[in-house]
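Next comes one such specimen:
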Amino acid sequence: MVEIGPGLGALTRLLLARLERLDVVEIDRELAASLASRVEHPERLVVHATDALDFDFGSLATMPRSLRVVGNLPYNVSTPLLFHLLEFGDAIKDVYVMLQREVVERMTARPGGKDYGRLTVMLAPWFEARHLFDVGPGAFTPAPRVWSAVARLVVRREPAFAIPPAFALTVSAAFSHRRKTLRNALRSLMDASQIVAAGIDPGVRPETLTPAEFAKLAAQVP
């Protein structure tokens, strides 16, 4: 198990009470250096003083899909960090993270809702995401202005559907113009006949499509 951003060790202490070994990744070198003195079982703790965005999580896995990741992720890097973890999908079983609540709502949104968007679609092939519970501002010191939420992301053994090379480009283009119809939002990538060839109505808006339908669209990009 690896914890991202242990900070002062509030979660770290609880994890070490149950684990024989815990790896932690902490970017703040002063916090990293003092962490062992804050826990009851420092001999079980392995500290990696580095940026999680640069860390090779695959190096910690003892076998395929053996790594479990936990952490209270910094809000400003939560999305790029999730995509970084995807690079080690073969090594990771699941991820339990606390994020800003609106990010979790976007991760777990269904087509047609206001929270459904690029993040939802890009994570869908790789993660099965579930919103577990909310955490109010009073749980933190200092208290933030926003609510947080804990999510579980289970890494899929295989992508939920085939991923065409233009998948990310298509999703990005569509949600850059989410108020427009697909015909207009994807004008730079394909014409209406190609959208129809994917089995999709060119007159619908991007947020009504399932992630798999975006893959069908992306397959039409030359």
User: Anything to note?
Assistant: Strands lie at 2-4, 22-25, 45-48, 67-72, 92-100, 127-135, 148-155. The first strand starts at residue 2 and ends at 4.
